[in-house]
Amino acid sequence: MLPLGAGLRRLKTRKQNRIYRRSGIVSDAVGTPVLSARGLRKEHGKGEGSVRAVDGVDLDVSAGETVAIMGPSGCGKSTLLHLLGGLDRPSAGEMSLNGRRIDNISEKALALMRRTEVSYVFQSFHLMEELTAVENVELAALLAGRSPRVARRRAEELLDQLGLAGRARFLPSALSGGQRQRVAVARALSNEPLVVLADEPTGNLDSAATLDVLQLFEDLHESGQTLVIVTHDARIAATADRKFSMRDGAFADETWLTGGTTGQLGALVGLED
Ligand SMILES: Nc1ncnc2c1ncn2[C@@H]1O[C@H](COP(=O)(O)OP(=O)(O)OP(=O)(O)O)[C@@H](O)[C@H]1O
Question: Does the UniProt entry include the keyword rRNA-binding (predicted)?
Fold first, then answer.
């Protein structure tokens, strides 16, 4: 088994190739945000009882960047993440993925985007309990259009790289919380997503497993994976390039943790080394 960091770094070359391939040239991968939102709004419900959960969010996430979103309970973090990943539709505003509008596309196109271009890691893992670890990961790759042979190979490879080779045939019920979240991360990577969206990835974990998953997200960041993480955990947020504080559906504050534009330049360096 490869050490976790080394395993993920091996993924990096493939990721670089994918970004080059999809974007055509490097400057596109850096210049065009992977994920972008303008004037994003979401109202839950209608009329007097409606709640404006997201209220005018602008966001650009560059290739290879990790963005953390923090804020008090109910400020709209999960709703925003759902909008960004196409799990829900905005009431107003525009969103783009790799330069392509996604706020006004058909349900079919949105479903395809969810299977092939974005991935999620949830607080409560959302693994299929009747499937083994490798089957959970493989299923996501199959849904993204990989052949059964490629899907199985990729699933085994990812579990190996995430330190779970010995647990591949275990059902989720036989895994610890940290191991389940690792399977969920392997599943999220199985379609080679442009961006991984994580909603409180350590919210259901004890402190030892939290440290484990924290390291995992640092390694993912290091591997060049674009990440948007909603979290209450300042340690997770500290692994990000930028941190947004959300209040009442909008960003109240933005903090560069890796120093202004050097965060974006860092992504460029990461692509080229
Ligand atoms: N499906 C829904 N229908 C009606 N209101 C909703 C729905 N989902 C969320 N809300 C409301 O929208 C607001 C934002 O909720 P959201 O879950 O996005 O907040 P959050 O910041 O993620 O909270 P937490 O940190 O507790 O998970 C809250 O007032 C919530 O009650």
Answer: no
In this predicted structure, the answer to whether residue 213 has a pLDDT above a threshold of 50 is yes
In tens, the pLDDT along 244-260 reads: 999 999 999 989 887 44
Token duo for residue 211: 């440290």
Q: Which atom from ligand 1 is nearest to the alpha carbon of 78?
A: 22
Q: Which of 43, 51, 81, 229 to mutate to test the pocket of ligand 1 (most atoms within 8 A of CB)?
A: 51
What contacts 26, CB < 8 A, 6 or more positions away?
20, 268, 271, 272
Residues making up the chain, counted from first to last: 273
Overall average pLDDT of the 37-43 stretch: 97
Say yes or no to pLDDT of 269 above 70.
no
Q: How many CB atoms lie within 10 A of CB 58?
A: 13
Instruction: Report CA(57)–ligand 1 centroid distance (Å).
Output: 15
**26-117+194-272 has which CATH code?**
3.40.50.300
Name the residue at shortest CA distance from atom 24 of ligand 1: 73
For residues 271 and 2, the model is more confident at 2
Spell out which residues line ligand 1, taking CB within 6 angstroms: 44-45, 51, 53, 71, 73-79
Structural domain boundaries of the chain?
Answer: 26-117+194-272
Give, for ligand 1, the residue of 55, 70, 78 to mutate: max count of ligand atoms closer than 8 Å to Cβ: 78
